[in-house]
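Fill in residues.
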């Protein structure tokens, strides 16, 4: 959950990050075109780092689960089905990581 402060009011909810090509929306965090002070530059820097992590995650998931990359950037399914699909591959990816990590632990102890 993200807390956003607008005119000293705290708005709780979900916000998405997007690049400067997206239109300005209340729920979409985009970089500032003209960062004029340290706080705006810090925001742009944090935004850039966050987007970089997200893009690497998408790249990893798309390479591991090709069903996510067949549309060439367009949705092949409804938005709701796409969300379920992405959630499912996230869960499968995390299970795979857990499984591999527990195997390594067993292998280490079996050598002793």
């Amino acid at each position: 959950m993200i807390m956003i402060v607008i005119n000293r009011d705290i708005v709780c909810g979900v916000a998405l990050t997007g690049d400067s090509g997206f239109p300005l929306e209340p729920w979409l965090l985009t970089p500032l075109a003209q960062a004029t002070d340290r706080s705006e530059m810090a925001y742009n820097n944090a935004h850039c780092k966050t987007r970089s992590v997200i893009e690497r995650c998408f790249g990893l998931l798309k390479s591991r689960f090709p069903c996510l990359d067949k549309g060439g950037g367009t949705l092949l399914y409804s938005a709701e089905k796409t969300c379920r699909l992405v959630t499912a591959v996230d869960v499968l990816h995390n299970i795979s990581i857990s499984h591999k990590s527990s195997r390594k632990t067993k292998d280490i102890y079996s050598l002793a």
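The chain is about 55% helix and 10% strand.
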